[in-house]
């Protein structure tokens, strides 16, 4: 018998936002509320199955685990019931009164209406339950935790989705959870048996627990229960018996992602290590994939077909955190914890094997599906680059998957592989040349590239923040060394080669070079003539052992103290401006010119000046000269 004493609670502020969003904006695909509630029921049953394996729960009678769906047309109500683990009062407040993911509200506020109407968002933020308010006037949840022996200690949660909910103690004979959805009049399509069957087949056919619906037999004038899903784990079925669409539906079920996966790999391994894995590469990254504190990554872990945990991130390295799927192994103990999982030898063996399979899968995608690989690279390329430092044993495989843009590409779209670069290298070229910059435009227009364009030598343009850090770990590929063109290199000098009259030029410029050195003093490491420049008067280079400009910026942005960078100033003796400055006799005027040239080169190389006002004043001086 129910206790009529109701406790009134107010939803957490972010939950109110979610409810508002659900009720007023997310309406393009209302049927997903069935998918979400079935998914939650399945999770509760998976947890209960695991509890049955513990000796501590030997006093709890085992039951056949079921999800049941009741339709009540008189009350305009649909009920989804499970005999899973149930919830305590504390858990029901936590699970139904708050939003699980931090940052959800901020993220949702950033979405436009077009994005909001994409129901792929539901389920990604721990808010799937609230989708029931899209179609209902009221939702009631009746639950009893599996450890609660007294059937009078059931909990009833009810809300109309208007900012508050009520909790009441009730009598509930069995443990588990019943969710009653009181439908709006215009949503009575969900009271039709055929409609529910279609939704279950579409979203939940391969949930590893029977889903039964109550049907009326008009000939016998009785109700009976009928199973409406296959209730067999997809990964346990022979690959030859599974259709592509079934793989895609299963992906949607385990990820709540309505975007189809790019590709997947299904392996059933026998031998010393017995395991089955079904791994997917998504076509869209998670909104919080760069959140370091995000724990919602990793695979679903099953042991001997028994669900153990979600988000088991011990089976793949962090740079493959975008991979979704399941692993089912016979070689781990059922009572394993996350902490034990981390140090277990079997885990390490499986991680090595799964990593190899994923990298092979991505490689096949790059060869056989170029368009899909472009999508993959756009979504996950930056994350994949992390693997160069994280996974030394697979460095060459990861490097082979990298894509770049270059001065010979028509756009900043990164489509060039290192293998393609090497196959088209200049005949005198022995290194892979690259330039790092703050962005594509500044890299593509850098004066360092002038001679490379003239000599038809390709240069990779690295314009992402991670790239400079990446190049500390990517030193060679196919026995070809990488060389930054921002730095001095003897081999480059050989490619540029001096003109036949170089000795004469250098002799004529000797006094000017000394004057430049004396004027700039400790601002530069050295001053010399350049044969790499064509349209630019001066350029700054770094010694080959110096920290790069981009790396210095990264350290400074992180608040690190770094040594002062001193550049090599190279001067183009063939530039008209240099020829003019050399003829100037007035000492102060030539010093001003030298400082302007240095600041120009510094601005081009670093993107900033130590004293921009002085630079502006020097420019203004010459603008005023008549």
| N- to C-terminal distance | 101 Å
Mean pLDDT: 87
Q: What profile does the largest beta sheet have?
A: 9 strands, mixed
Would you tell me the structural class of the helices and strands?
A: alpha+beta
> Which residues form runs of ≥5 with pLDDT under 50?
114-120, 122-126
Q: What name goes with the CATH superfamily of the largest domain?
A: Histidine kinase-like ATPase, C-terminal domain
CATH topology of the largest domain: Heat Shock Protein 90
Strands, count: 22
What is the radius of gyration computed over CA atoms, rounded to a whole number of angstroms?
33 Å
CATH architecture of the largest domain: 2-Layer Sandwich
Number of helices: 22
User: Share of helix among residues?
Assistant: 25-40%
The neighbouring-strand order within the major sheet is 1-6-5-4-7-3-2-8-9
Write down the domain tally: 4
Outline type: elongated
Highest CATH level, the class of the largest domain:
Alpha Beta
Beta-strand residue fraction: 15-25%
């Amino acid at each position: 018998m129910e206790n009529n004493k109701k406790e009134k609670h107010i939803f957490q502020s972010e939950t109110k936002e979610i409810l508002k969003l659900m009720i007023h904006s997310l309406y393009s695909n209302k049927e997903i509320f069935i998918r979400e509630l079935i998914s939650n029921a399945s999770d509760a049953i998976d947890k209960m199955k695991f509890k049955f394996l513990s000796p501590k729960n030997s006093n709890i009678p085992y039951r056949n685990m079921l999800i049941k769906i009741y339709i009540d047309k008189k009350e305009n109500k649909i009920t989804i019931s499970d005999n899973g683990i149930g919830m305590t009062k504390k858990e029901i407040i936590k699970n139904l009164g708050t939003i699980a993911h931090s940052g959800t509200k901020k993220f949702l506020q950033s979405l436009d209406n077009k994005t909001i109407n994409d129901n792929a968002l539901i389920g990604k933020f721990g808010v799937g339950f609230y989708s029931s308010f899209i179609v209902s006037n009221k939702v009631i949840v009746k639950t009893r935790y599996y450890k609660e022996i007294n059937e009078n200690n059931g909990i009833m949660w009810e809300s109309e989705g208007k900012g508050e909910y009520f909790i009441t103690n009730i009598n509930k004979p069995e443990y588990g959870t019943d969710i009653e959805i009181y439908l709006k009049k215009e949503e009575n399509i969900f009271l039709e048996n055929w409609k529910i069957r279609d939704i279950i087949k579409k979203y939940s056919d391969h949930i590893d627990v029977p889903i039964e619906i109550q049907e009326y037999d008009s000939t016998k004038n009785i109700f009976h229960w009928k199973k409406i899903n296959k209730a067999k784990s997809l990964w346990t079925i022979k690959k030859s018996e599974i259709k592509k669409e079934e793989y895609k539906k299963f992906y949607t079920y385990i990820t709540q992602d309505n975007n189809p996966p790019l590709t997947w790999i299904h392996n059933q391994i026998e031998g010393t290590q017995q395991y089955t894995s079904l791994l997917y590469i998504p076509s869209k990254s998670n909104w919080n994939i760069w959140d370091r504190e995000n724990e919602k990554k990793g695979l679903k872990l099953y042991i001997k077909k028994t669900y153990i945990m979600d988000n088991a991130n011990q089976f793949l390295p962090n740079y493959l955190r975008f991979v979704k799927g399941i692993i089912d192994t016979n070689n781990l103990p059922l009572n394993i914890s996350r902490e034990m999982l981390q140090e277990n030898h079997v885990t390490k063996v499986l991680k090595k094997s799964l990593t190899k399979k994923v990298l092979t899968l991505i490689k096949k995608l790059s060869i056989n599906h170029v368009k899909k690989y472009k999508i993959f690279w756009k979504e996950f390329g930056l994350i994949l680059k992390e693997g160069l430092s994280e996974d030394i044993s697979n460095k060459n495989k990861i490097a082979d998957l990298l894509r770049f843009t270059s001065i010979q590409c028509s756009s900043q779209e990164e489509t060039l592989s290192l293998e393609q670069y090497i196959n088209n290298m200049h005949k005198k070229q022995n290194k892979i040349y690259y330039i790092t910059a703050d962005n594509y435009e500044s890299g593509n227009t850098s004066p360092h590239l002038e001679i490379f364009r003239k000599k038809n030598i390709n240069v990779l343009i690295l314009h992402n923040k991670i790239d400079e850090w990446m190049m500390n770990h990517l030193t060679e590929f196919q026995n070809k060394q990488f060389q930054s063109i921002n730095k001095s290199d003897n081999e480059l000098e050989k490619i540029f080669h001096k003109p036949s009259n170089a000795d004469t030029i250098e002799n004529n410029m000797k006094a000017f070079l000394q004057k430049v050195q004396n004027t700039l003093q400790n601002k530069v490491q050295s001053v010399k003539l350049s044969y790499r420049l064509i349209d630019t008067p001066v350029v700054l280079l770094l010694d080959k052992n110096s920290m790069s400009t981009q790396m210095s910026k990264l350290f400074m942005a992180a608040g690190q103290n770094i040594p002062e960078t001193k550049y090599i100033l190279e001067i183009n003796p063939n530039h008209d401006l240099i020829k003019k400055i050399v003829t100037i006799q007035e000492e102060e005027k030539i010093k001003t010119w030298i400082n302007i040239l240095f600041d120009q080169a510094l601005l081009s190389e670093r993107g900033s000046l130590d004293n921009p006002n002085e630079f502006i004043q020097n420019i203004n001086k010459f603008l005023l000269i008549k």
